[in-house]
Amino acid sequence: MSETSGRVLTEAEKARMERNRIKALHLRQAKLVAHPYQKKNVNAIAGEDSIIKVQGTKYIDSGGGFLLEQPVISTPSLQSVSKEIESGAPSTDIVQVSNDAITIPVNFEECLDCGDAFVESYLFSNFGYAVCDKCRDPDDRHALITRTEAKAEYLLKDCDFDSREPPLRYISRKNPHNVRWGEMKLYLLMQVEQRAMEVWGSEEELSRQHELREEKREVTKVKKYNKHMKQLRMEMRSSLFTKETKSTHVHEFGPDTYNEDDDNYTHACTTCNYTETYEKM
């Protein structure tokens, strides 16, 4: 009985491995094409006379001024594959087609919830979270959250998503509110919560940061309100000014007084304390 990763494989896993092996063989046979312009049977179209051998390599004269290399395909037939399955030969995790074929390893992941082995799943393919599709709970534990909501709820910055190792994986979706807006980035909620714990350390610290930011918002609102009220008061006071109060004061001088010692004249304003001294020519 074969073992993979130190444990015994079940019958369902063996059957799945056989299906994957046959699928890999079919894909391999479909990809073995010598030239993109070559038909399925070049020898039948061009004829055996058009085959030219140059330094041990066979080429086919296309008749258009260039040569096509003759394909050499060495793959097992479907009959041999079916006989191997019917004979009950033990399955392996690596598919070997021919000496120059590509080996395709089949890696199994273990579900973190149920413990079953699986090859791929929605959460593992998009977010690298090892949970199979049958255990996925998209409405609760495995819900998705937008980047904007995650930054507001968990007080994260852009560097926490992109620069901190490892960067959080996401999927892009069209904005449901307006298709002309930018695409939304959806993150796995469980991974966002883990990243928030790495940044803040605990849920108590995250709650305290929320309270501090709420207090800052209240102080900002009060300052903005006081500034707005001060501006309204200034506008109200300025509306009480009349045109006369804003005009320049004009002096109204009284009679002149002659000063014999200095040989000049002095007169004072009758409405203010201004005094002017001058000389008469």
UniProtKB/TrEMBL annotation:
InterPro entries found in the cross-reference section: DNA-bd_dom_put_sf (IPR009061), XPA/RAD14 (IPR000465), XPA_C (IPR022656), XPA_CS (IPR022658), XPA_sf (IPR037129), Znf_XPA_CS (IPR022652)
Cellular component, GO, one term: nucleotide-excision repair factor 1 complex
Location of this chain's protein in the cell: Nucleus
CDD domains listed in its UniProt record: DBD_XPA (cd21076)
Pfam family, one: XPA_C
Keyword set includes Transmembrane: no
UniProt entry keywords in alphabetical sequence: DNA damage, DNA repair, DNA-binding, Metal-binding, Nucleus, Zinc, Zinc-finger
GO process annotations (BP): base-excision repair; nucleotide-excision repair involved in interstrand cross-link repair; nucleotide-excision repair, DNA damage recognition; UV-damage excision repair
GO MF annotations, alphabetized: damaged DNA binding; zinc ion binding
Principal subcellular localisation of the protein: nucleus
PROSITE patterns the UniProt entry points to: XPA_2
Domain of life: Eukaryota
Keyword set includes Zinc-finger: yes
Domain XPA C-terminal: 142-192
Protein family per UniProt: Belongs to the XPA family.
Protein name: (Mediterranean fruit fly) hypothetical protein
Phylogenetic lineage: Eukaryota, Metazoa, Ecdysozoa, Arthropoda, Hexapoda
